[in-house]
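U., I forgot to send this yesterday:
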Amino acid sequence: MKKKIIGMIIVVVFSIVTLYLLLNSKEIAEFPELIKRLDIKFLIIAVLMMIIYLIINSTIIYVIGKEINDSITFKRSAYLSFVGQYYSLITPFAAGGQPAQIFAMKNKYKIPYSVGTTITVKKFLIFQVVVSLYAILMFFTKLHFVINNYSKLIVFIVLGLIVNLFGGLLIILLSYSKMIVVKILDFVILIAKKLHLSKYIKREKIMTHIDDYVKNIDEIKNNKKTMVTLIVMTFIQLTVYFSITYFIYLSLGQDGAHYIDILAIQTIVYVVVSFIPTPGGAGASEGSFYLLFKVFFSRDILLYAMALWRIIVYYGNMILSGLILLGVRIVTYFKKKNYIEGH
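Result:
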């Protein structure tokens, strides 16, 4: 609860800062004119991209869940998807999403914690590998473009890529050799001891997680058809999500930029922000967008492009997820109340 409150405070603070920058920018006087020339059809497509992203997310949970537990339906998967979205958006490093989903599976659907953990771990493993490979693919596809336009930011970009790639590589290594990962862990612990930081690393606990991951990776590998399906779905999901910025670009009357350029830079924004410990990347997302997308958007509408993007992918998502969770809770309450009164 304490982490949740801190997360909400951080979100509110950065929201106020963003609003302040918008209201105090020199371009605020041009806002009515900007609204007039906004191409609604492209903005609607951007919103639809976000909805498709959420539908695919629900479908991925369903595909994984139905093979493990017969009680997992698409309707339940959609609810669990919104649970994950909401709690990921309000906690640092999106750390609250998976525990909230496991808790919801147990308390709402009576699905054992072990099954809930398996579902969330498998989804995480697939996502982490795909997003790491996706980011590397985009980076090297547009390497010349990145070097030419972001030479001063290249260190931060590469650092974000390394952090994401490291996670993906560890999972791939676990799928072939657990011993290599254990040796890496022991090497890290050895360095931590020399730096007097070993008390923060619990080897036994990490080994438990490694064993869990190996078990789930083996199960994924043994069902190649499902594995390929999940990889393809995750790839499409990421492409849809990263495409939102392109349709915002078009909705604001901008042209000249190639779709693949914006897709690649949006991918980089995602990986750079992913290791910033604020809820939903609050602050870091806005800053990264401003720095990386000023190459594409004219200066007079850059802040509004950033605001539209955050409204769709963050605030709109958080409000929608929160309202759905609240609605489900209210319906459940009245169902229980009517049941009690009827008996």
